Structure formats: C-alpha cells, structure tokens
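tool_call predict_complex ligand=adenosine-5'-diphosphate
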Amino acid sequence: QVSFVNCRQKGISHSMDNKQVLIEVSHLTHIYETEGEAPFYALRDVSLQINKGDFVAVIGTNGSGKSTLARHLDAILLPSEGDVLVDGLSVKNPDDIWKIRPYVLRNKGNPMEDEWEELGPMKPDNQLVASIVEDDVAFGPENLGVPREEIIARVADSLKKVGMESYRKHSPSMLSGGQKQRIAIAGVLAMHPECIVLDGPTAMLDPSGRKEVMETIHRLNKEMGITIVLITHFMEEAVTANRVVVIHKGQITADGTPEDVFSKVEEMKAGGLDVPVPTELSYRLAQLGLPIRGDCMTNKELGEELCRFVLKK
Ligand code: ADP
Ligand code: MG
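tool_result ok
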C-alpha cells in the first residue's frame, strides 16, 4: 500500500527555458521478450520532454508503440534501455517508484482495443467496479490510503469537476459511454495526479460521448493545470492539443504544434495516418490554385477562409 502523497504541492524542476519539466523520457528503448521469438523493439531511442500543464496528443498507426510509451509514463513498464524521470526521479530506482507513481496516472482505454493491457496497480481495467458511482470514484484514493474524510471531499470535488455530481448515487451500469468515461476520469482525478495519461478514452464512444469526454479533459487541463497526454486515433481530437507527437514503428517521427505536424499532409499520409478533414480539404484546394491557406486545422478556420475567398471575388 502506498502512503498518501499530495503531489500537487511538491516542487517541480525547471528546464532551461523556465518551463517546468514533469516527465523526461530519455533515449528510451523497450524490448518485449517473448519465449521462442526474437526480441521485439517496441520503442527505440525515444526522447521526449513533457512540461507541466502541457496537453500532448500522441498519434500513430496500430502497433506503433503508443500504449507501450503510455505504460512507461506511469512506470508500469520499465526501460530496457534509457530512462524516464518523473519530477527528476528515475523510474529505475526501486526506492522511488512508489513516490513517483501517484504523479502520473493512466486511464486505460478499453481492454478490447488493447490485447496486451495488463493489470495496473489501481483497477483491473477501465470498467467501473462498484455498484454506485461515488464508491467507484473512491476506489483509487482508498487504495492510496487517503483518510476517510478527505476521500469524501475528493469524491464530491472530482464528480463536480467532470460534471457528474448529480449522478453520485446512480449505478454506473445505467450511464452512457461518455458518462462512464467521465466517472473513470473522476476516479483518477480523486487521486490528485499531476498528469493524466489517457489511452484511447474516446475509442468506443459515439460523437456526443467523445465531445463530452474531450471537453472534460480540456477543462481539467485549463482549470486545474493537470498535464494531459492523450493517445487518440481521432485527428480532430489531436488538433485540440498544444502539441502533437507522432510515433511510427517505435520512434518519434514528428513533434510540434498541430499546425506544424498536420500541415505536412503528404508525409502524414505516407506514414499511414490521416490529417483532419478541414486540413486535407484546404490543402487540396490550395493545391488546385485557390488563394486560401492550405493548413486549416478546424472546420471553423476552413469556413472562414472559404468565406473570405468567396466575398473577395
Ligand atoms: P499501439 O498502442 O501503438 O497500438 P503497442 O505499444 O500496444 O502499440 O504495441 C507495440 C508493438 O509491441 C506491437 O507490435 C505489439 O504487438 C507489441 N507488443 C505490445 N505489448 C506486447 C507484449 N506484452 N508482449 C509482446 N509484444 C507486445
Ligand atoms: Mg494501444
């Protein structure tokens, strides 16, 4: 059992440009060893710095190593080579691992999507375990040994933060997919993490559920300063991040603002990825000679560009 740590009060180291570095992935290689098979390099020499307050989207084709990276961020996997530092502490130091685990919590996507998902320290999977919502949210802080009174306050607060306070006595099984995800996020939130890693949180949701969850995640980032690492297959979701990291065959092939990354339409396609629909459309129209920006990221931007063009004519 872990002792109660309130990470959010701790000092966090500063990098050169005065941004606070939360996670430093340094020359990380991960090799899966399966008996009777050649060692498999799922990540190869990956370096990545995640600053406090960042909203980072990680994209990549199936099997590119996204979930493997996610499992390193919450120290469920340990580096084969290289290192991961969380608030300056190395995941390779067994004495520090319990100190650093509460900093970064991973909300697993869904077990159906990820055949390799193993049991985490907190919950068997993303399915809600208790028969009423508030007990489910209390599960994480209870495991951390948080005192009873404090748990009650945290549960109420977390449910409020995800906009689900009126459902606290409900049965999770009666909720929509989007609401279930928000309850799962409240459960993570109640553990007071510095960073939440979300591996495909919207994969199984309908458009309105996806919108609900994305709005919730953004609110946690903006209003509470929680660092977000979002793994997603949806390019429209990746566009809403401050930063997009592309992983291809275990290596980072692009890392920058959504504009930097998605404006390279041909490169993205060559790597088996899509770009957001408005980006592709504006790119193609610009290629056809229309005098508009070829790197619109959202429908709104594309609409504005087209209006400008039509009105000018
Ligand atoms: P992604 O999340 O991007 O789809 P993963 O990180 O889950 O990719 O997997 C990367 C590669 O590593 C895949 O080829 C996958 O089959 C392999 N892999 C993942 N987990 C294991 C494991 N526990 N044992 C062996 N190979 C694995
Ligand atoms: Mg995965």
